[in-house]
Every structure is written in C-alpha cells, then in structure tokens.
Amino acid sequence: MKNSPSICQWYLSSLLSPVSAAVGEAIILHYMDDALMCAPNDDLLSHALDLTIDSLVAAGFELQEEKIQRMLPWKYLGLEIDASGASHKSVITWKDPQTQQWEKDIVEVEGSPQVAELAAIVRAFENFPEPFSLVTDLAYVAGVVSRAEQAVLSEVSNSALFNLLSKLVNLISHREQQFYVILIRSHTDLPGFIAKGNRRADALAAPVEMAPLPDIFEQAKISHQLLLQNAPGLVRQFHLTREQARAIVSMCPSCQQHSLPALSAGANPRGLNSCEVWQTDVTHIMSFGRQRYVPVSVDTFSGAVYASAHTGEKSSDAMKHLIQAFTFLGIPKSIKTDNGSTYTSKEFRSFLQQWGVEHKNWHPLLPDRENCQLQLKAKPPVMVKDPATRETEGPHDLITWGHGHSCVSTPSGPKWVPAKWVKPFIPKTAKPPAEAPQVASAAWRKRKRRTLSF
C-alpha cells in the first residue's frame, strides 16, 4: 500500500474493534491489508466473517472474493509454496542395452515434486529387477531410498505418499539384485548428460535477455543523430557535462556549419589517495598590490587547496609556497606544473628531489602570463581533396583544425573535411629565364680577359 503503514493499521483497527467486541470468543488478527480470524466453532467463525465483510464494505473497501479463504491457514499458505509441482509429471529415463537408445516413461502424478520423483523411483524398482544405478538430483529422494530397507513406517495423513513409501520399502527389502543411488547437482557447469540437459531446459525456460543499452554518452549520440538537439538539450535530457554535449553537437555532420569542436585535448588524471598527486599553478590578483602573485596547490584526490601571496613568481617564491603547503597538507608523492621557467630551473628540481617529490610538467605555459593573447590570425592556404570526386582542389584558407578534422574556407562556404585530406599549399617558384647564347659567350670572354690581365 502506498499510504502510511501506521495510518492503515490504525484505520483497520478502528473498523475491526467493534466486530471483535461483538463476536466475543472469536479472535481477529490483522496487519495492513491482511486479516486472520479463528473461532471455537464454524457458526461463530461464519458470523465473525460476515460482520467483518459488512464492516469493511461499509467503510468503502473493495474485497475480492477469491482472496477470502475458508480453509486451514497452513493449507491455504501451502498452495503457493507447492506451485513448483504444477506439471505433476513423474519421469524415468534409461538407456536400452540392446538398442543403445534412450527410453522414457512419463506418468502424471498429483502432488509436490518430491512425490512425483518418489513415484518415479518406485516405478524404476518395479520395472528393473536387474542391477542398476539410480541417478537423481533430489536429495530428499536419495535419502529416502538409502534408509528405506527394513524401515518401519508410521501412519501419515497423505495416503498417496504413504502408499508410495510402503511400496518402496517392500521393493527394497525384498530385492535380490544390487543397486546404487547417485546424487548429483544438476544445475552446475560440471560435465555430464544430466547437467547438459538441465542447462538446455533452463535456457528454454529462462526469459529472453534484452540487449544491454549503450552507455549514456552513446545514447545521447544516437538521440542527437535522430532529433538534432542542441547542447543544452542534451545536458538536460542525459545529464551530460556541457563539454560532452558540445562535443556531440560538433561531431554531427549536419551541425558542423554551426559549431566547432569543443572537446578538450586531454584528461587530467587524479590521484587515488590523499597527497598522491598535486597540481600547482600561479594566478595574478591585482588587488593584492605588490603581493599579487598567488601560487595555488590542489590535491587532486581530496580537493584540498592551499594558496599563498608572494612578491614574485620566481623559483624561490615557488619553493616558499610549497614549504608552507607541505606544512598544512602534507608531502605529496608527485606535483604537476607547467613548463615555465619557474618550475624548470635547477634550483626547483633540486628542491623537489630533496623532499622526495616526483615532478611532472603536465600542461604547457599559458601565453596570457606574458600579457599577450592567443589568436588565430594566420590563415595558411591548403590543398583539399574533394570526397566526392577524389580530386584535389585549392588553395583554400584554413579556418581551424582538431580531432582529425579541418575546416577550410571554400567559395561555397566553410567546409569540414578529414585532416588526412588536407595538405599545405606550396607555390611553385618560377625558374630564372635562360640567357641567350650570345650573352653567355660575351660574359665568358669578359671574365677571361679579367683573368689574363691580372
């Protein structure tokens, strides 16, 4: 039930309390939407049941007639427990020594799977007086057969089970030939004809497995190919990062004329434990005045940050910052920095070696440290192979490139092509004009006269 269990229990108790007071000796137990009643005699029990039904119907409850059971509770509850024996088939299989073919004997038997297999065991002892091996996967039957010889049976309420046990005890007690009971685990990966047959039956009875769905990123790519959502729509629908959504849009051929590749060049590995991998960099805060250079160290695992203000960004300032960071955060195993002069000097490397810290130059120095801007101003001419005609065209101006694709400016507009189809345009230089024979002969005679006069 979707409402509160306490409210449901309280409400049913308020409805059944008058009924319990009216019937006297009858006992009514209820929990949530289940109720159990018992009484010394059938008349009082029927009266209590009628009052309960009237009270619940008057309160607005809808009762299903098939759920109202008028039998002993252990029999009613046992109906579902015994549902595995719904087929009621007792099966014997054996290999005929004459034809070497497998034979079978199938009989419909009412009762649980244990009763059905016990009936098969009895038929096996009746039909095969010669020595044989009995193979079963039911521990209950194997235990009964091993203890049946000269056993004394007590009276049981189930007459069919009593008859089967009596026949089994009689057959085993008067049997002259030997037999052997083999108990195996049928549902296993071990080799054997029984396990092989059970695996085949399990495969047929098992529900059909659905093909696994692709991951979220692949689902977003498939959805964009069909619906052409923009990047914010992919973020809201598939809970991607903006970078992933923009990358999906930029890789779509239909959207290339509107977007450029936005996926970053690489990932930034993180540490698996605290103080395993640090990343150190310097930022400038102009409001700090003379101490505007602020080195920042971040533990990539825990996210702990330490920053300190300095008057410069030399190696000595970086070493002072790291000593303070070691005091607060601990000594890391490795530090990642850019390849600027601050972190590539001999003093800084010697400092890290003394502390036993591995140094990695992970990301390049940003040009904006030198108060300049990175802009793509040059548009070199390139030659492009047309994917349709396979002919080289150009020269065209190169707009941008990345991730295996290039964007070139064509007379029809910007065009995305694979980077392997783009080659630089190298203009052919013209050869100097050849001299006339008369001019060459006169120049040679002139050089010769100069040599002789010298």
TrEMBL record:
Where in the numbering of this chain does the Integrase catalytic domain appear? 265-367
- What superkingdom heads the lineage? Eukaryota
Which positions make up the DNA-binding region? 380-427
Example of a GO biological process term:
DNA integration
Q: Which GO terms describe its molecular function?
A: DNA binding; RNA stem-loop binding; RNA-directed DNA polymerase activity; RNA-DNA hybrid ribonuclease activity; zinc ion binding
Ranges of residues in domain RNase H type-1: 75-210
Q: Which UniProt keywords apply?
A: DNA integration, DNA-binding, Endonuclease, Hydrolase, Metal-binding, Multifunctional enzyme, Nuclease, Nucleotidyltransferase, RNA-directed DNA polymerase, Signal, Transferase, Zinc, Zinc-finger
Which residues belong to the signal peptide in this entry? Answer: 1-21
Q: What Pfam families does this protein's entry cite?
A: IN_DBD_C, Integrase_Zn, RNase_H, rve, RVT_1
Which parts of the sequence belong to the Reverse transcriptase domain? 1-81
Read off the PROSITE patterns from this record: INTEGRASE (PS50994), INTEGRASE_DBD (PS51027), RNASE_H_1 (PS50879), RT_POL (PS50878), ZF_INTEGRASE (PS50876)
Per UniProt, residues of the Integrase-type domain are 215-256, 380-427
Enumerate the PANTHER family for this protein: ENDOGENOUS RETROVIRUS GROUP K MEMBER 10 POL PROTEIN-RELATED, ENDOGENOUS RETROVIRUS GROUP K MEMBER POL PROTEIN
| Family membership noted in the UniProt record | Belongs to the beta type-B retroviral polymerase family. HERV class-II K(HML-2) pol subfamily.
List the protein's name: Uncharacterized protein
Supply the source organism for this entry.
Hirundo rustica rustica
